[in-house]
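User:
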Amino acid sequence: MKTASKIYTGLVMVFLFAPIAILLVFSFNSSKSLSVFSEFSLHWYEELFRDSVTLGAVRNTLVLAVSAAVISTVMGTAAAVGIHKLRSRYLRAALDTVTNIPMINPDIITGISLMLMFVFVGRLFGAATSLNFVTMLIAHVTFCLPYVILQVLPKLQQMDKALPEAAMDLGCTPLRAFVKVEVPEILPGILTGLIMAFTLSLDDFVISYFTSGNGFQTLPIRIYNMTKKTVTPKMYALATIIFFVILFLLLLSNLSDADTAKAVKEARKKRKDKREK
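Assistant: Predicted structure:
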């Protein structure tokens, strides 16, 4: 039984990561072939850094992703604190349901509904163009926000409720107690939410496609436009770079969670030793 489970797990891993492995390998291929690896070369990486249009799309994507991640992290943390402090169980359940709707709702429905809203508001105020960078930023914050809330809220629930109260008893204001005591406790959740929001915004296509305007093109939209003709291997090189960047961020997030869990465990052990003495 154990052997069968290992074989099954191995097959699943191969199925999941084989396409990525093929992409990584052929990004270093000297030719355009997807079936024959001729020789190792950095030719397509050089071509990538000569493509000003693609690099512009990468810059736009990074600006959008960073902006959306920072804004959604600040708003999501504030929302999670507010939900955590609610006393009404029914109101909290209602807010949890509302938070889950953007994640369950199909992207195409979210994209079309946001596009219609932006066009309506733009025409209402007589704007020349209804869709631009700001509309894309609002759309990205909208679908990133629930993920941040769901990362921060469990950390607030795990935190000792007596900590902020003790800080205020010692003379801290509520805001100072939150910054000095609560934020360090929930920081792993905040960082995880930030990284998740960044990665979700980075690779979004459907919502970006419906809410983007003329003159601002993200990388997924750029690649989609290239598929109408042909996707050159320099896109494999770009995908390889993005893959390793995301992998680094995930490792950083996991190490942060592991360090926090270790610190909490050591603190509990010290408190237990003091009580025994």
